[in-house]
Write a structure and sequence with these properties.
alpha+beta; Elongation Factor Tu (Ef-tu), domain 3; Threonyl-tRNA Synthetase, Chain A, domain 2; Diaminopimelate Epimerase, Chain A, domain 1; 7-stranded antiparallel β-sheet; 6-stranded mixed β-sheet; elongated; binds zinc ion; aminoacyl-tRNA deacylase activity; nucleic acid binding
Length: about 400
């Protein structure tokens, strides 16, 4: 049977009595069809379902099946039932949906952009345009949209025969049906739509575009209306105030101050890197004074708490001079680092010794015969050093 869609005639009705036409158990739910309903079906025309109850039983889902609206309940119902729709959720959807009509109108009017996609979710709404938009175009469309809201224009829903509807200069070509439901925003827009809308544009409160991104060959625009826009403003304003307090500056100075901090940070990072390199050079020079000389080669064996990056840097500096070989180890909480190297004029079998030491610390890593590094999880740095010393000397 055809379910009479009361939400089409009046979006503000939240309580209604209806007769159960059928109630059939399917898996864990009962599929309930009524002679009439105020429940909007899920994702019909891009809008989510209404929340609410039927005779006190929570409505799990609402589906459109041909001319029928199917309500999914966990318990069976019969006879006359009382429908109750959560108006908070419904009104929020009405605000977003009517806002979409207005924003789509503004983008079409100002820039000739057609809305080719619409998605209304529980937290945000998007429309897809077939044109590319700049930031300035978005601002202009936002301003026109909000002007239409302030003018508090009447929004009406009327049924038209298909041919009559085509005479209305519709912003989007409708699907060919005998009858079309046209949503008109006084003096502005006529558009075929089956959703729920506010009666006056002023009820939308505000339209704020929050994001735009390139989508396919056009633009996806994300926006918020009414309470959602207010909630978003509260969060963002708090965030700005917190940041202002943190940086002890006015909100309009935040960007300048953050850029300054980032630049300073970049300079400091560079300074630290330069100082680190200088410090490693100093450490390398100090290690040469303890080198053990054998057959004209100076051997450096050392254990420290440097990280593997610094060990490598120190080793590289040591072997820049001819006739140097170095075995450097370090230990931290749960890692053991090993770096070995020799000057380019030498040809000690470093790789072989490295592999033996690597096995001692259960290390992972490698390199060429002149510079090798690994990190292991066995804290046996001293053993490693001893093995290298005994093999090399
Ligand atoms: Zn609509």
């Amino acid at each position: 049977m055809t379910s009479e869609k009361i939400f089409m005639d009046d979006s503000y009705i939240t309580e209604l009595e209806a007769e159960v036409a059928s109630c059939v158990q399917k898996d864990e739910y009962y599929e309930v069809i009524l002679d009439k309903t105020i429940f909007y079906p899920h994702m019909s025309g891009g809008q989510p379902k209404d929340e609410g109850t039927i005779s006190g039983i929570k409505v799990i889902n609402v589906l459109e099946r041909g001319d029928e609206i199917v309500h999914l309940l966990k318990e069976p119902v019969e006879g006359t039932v009382k429908l109750s729709v959560d108006f908070g959720t419904r009104f929020d959807y009405m605000q977003q949906h009517t806002g979409q009509h207005i924003l789509s109108y503004a983008l079409a009017k100002l820039f000739g952009g057609n809305t080719v996609g619409f998605h209304l979710s529980e937290s945000y709404t998007t429309i897809d345009l077939d044109i590319l938009l700049t930031d300035e175009m978005v601002v202009a469309a936002e301003q026109l949209s909000n002007r239409i809201i302030y003018e508090n224009k009447k929004v009406t829903a009327r049924e038209y025969a298909y041919e009559d509807a085509l005479k209305l200069n519709l912003s989007k070509m409708p699907v060919e049906l005998d009858h079309l439901r046209i949503i008109s925003i006084e003096n502005y827009d006529d558009n075929a739509c089956g959703g729920t809308h506010v009666n006056y544009t002023g009820e939308i409160g505000i339209i704020k575009v929050t994001k735009k991104e390139k989508y396919k060959s056009g633009t996806r625009v994300e926006f918020l209306c009414g309470r959602r826009a207010l909630d978003d403003y509260i969060v963002k304003n708090k965030s700005l105030l917190d940041l202002s307090a943190l940086l002890t500056c006015r909100a309009d100075m935040l960007q300048e101050n953050i850029e300054k901090i980032l630049n300073e940070n970049k300079k400091l990072t560079k300074d630290i890197s330069t100082l680190g390199s200088e410090l490693n050079e100093y450490k390398a020079r100090e290690l040469t004074s303890n080198a053990v000389v054998k057959d004209g080669v100076s051997f450096v064996f050392n254990k420290s708490d440097n990280d593997v990056k610094d060990l490598r840097s120190i080793c590289s500096k040591l072997i820049e001079t001819d006739n140097y070989a170095a075995v450097l180890v370090s230990e931290s909480d749960n890692t053991c680092n090993l770096v070995m190297g020799q000057s380019k004029n030498l040809s000690l079998d470093m790789k072989n010794i490295f592999e033996q030491c690597k096995a001692v610390i259960n290390g992972k890593g490698g390199g060429n015969n002149y510079l090798l590094q690994c990190t292991g999880d066995l804290l046996r740095a001293d053993e490693c050093l001893e093995l290298a010393r005994n093999t090399l000397l």
